[in-house]
User: Fold this.
Amino acid sequence: MSKTLLAIGTRKGLWLATSKDRENWEFSGPHHAMTDVFAVAIDTRRDTPRLLAGVTSEHFGPSVATSDDLGATWQEPDHAPVAFPDDTGEALGRVWQLAPGPASEPDVVYAGVEPSALFRSTDGGVTYELVRGLWEHPHREHWTPGFGGKAIHTVVPHPTSSSRVTVAMSTGGVYRTDDGGKSWQASNTGIKAVHVPDPYPEYGQCVHKITSHPAQPERFYAQVHHGVYRSDDGAASWQSIADDLPSDFGFPMVIHPHKPEVIYNFPLQADGMRFPPEGKCRVYRSQDAGKSWDALGAGLPDEFWTGVMRDAMCADDADPAGVYFGSRSGEVYASRDEGEHWQRIADHLPDVLCVRAALV
Amino acid sequence: MRVTVLLPGVLRAKADDQATLDVEVAEPATLGDLLDVLAERYPALERRLRDERSTLRRYVNFYVDGEECRFSGGTGTVLRDAAEVQIIPSVAGG
Assistant:
């Protein structure tokens, strides 16, 4: 019988939770104790899923660890798995995103990193090489750090075309390639920037998270620093879908695993007031691609003076889908019915930075 | 010449569980030269001491014969024969 694996990356290590019914969970951890885990992935393209974790020790620097036994043991190469080439003069800050590539390339894994760069692995995520085309983009010198750092925090490989990849960064915005990473185009038409004089620059937007669905790869959704958007043309242009939300500020944007019209986010009141509206913990779900939104709060607290980070919300791949999120105050909530009802399955963890879940 | 490196417990697994390393380095040698030798012998250890630009990790301290290297030339600190290099994680984190 399959079980659900939930990986929870925190400021002080990784916790793993498993459940056969998504109601009763068994936890292990901390794995990679005293590292911040900004990125975790469950690569289900293999017979035995591979776990990948981007771990950064304040003392000993960043690395990527992999596990082929669901976290019982972890491996790292002796040499740094992600490292900038000598001629760049840069050093890796941390790995922000680990994204398995398309099914047709089961050994391809992408890493989005700080400082803003994209790396690509062709050995299943063990070692990586810099994607030069993006690194040498003439816009790069104008990308600037947000409060969290200057990083490519989101990588969305096309589900069937190995030559197409879309990335997002703060700040800098959305970029996409159609030629396997040789050339990249800024893809921010329609996304508003509130932190620079020109409200609609070609690039430079503070995009917090983008997502897409394999069944509709031309459609994207974005949560931006004051803005929620949808694109129906492969991220070439964007339209606001924030009208029905209580706030257009927030970090995560999650798509349903089987329903491309269904998305989830977690609004915060404003940039200058990073709490949920009225302090109430509510996940917002749209079932019509952003035309309308509903607040989901059954089982969630009304006093919640904390936040949910950009990768700290996810869905699993079960049917009905499970939805999960973790807070900066170390709580993890799970819904096994697509957000209708919620259960707190962990508390008193360190700040939750990322979550990922899958049937294994 | 031969230099002794003292490792903190948290890093010993990256050097075959040794607490002390006896390292042969060509004379004259600096701390950077010593770390270059360690990069060959124990790359998983060395990458936790320096980044890919060969910059010392900010929160790792290197005491050369008892003196913190950042006050004596950093990676350019000259090592004497039989020098002792003690590696100690600094006070950091919360």
Remarks:
- The beta strands of chain B are 2-6, 20-24, 29-30, 60-64, 67-68, 78-79, 84-89.
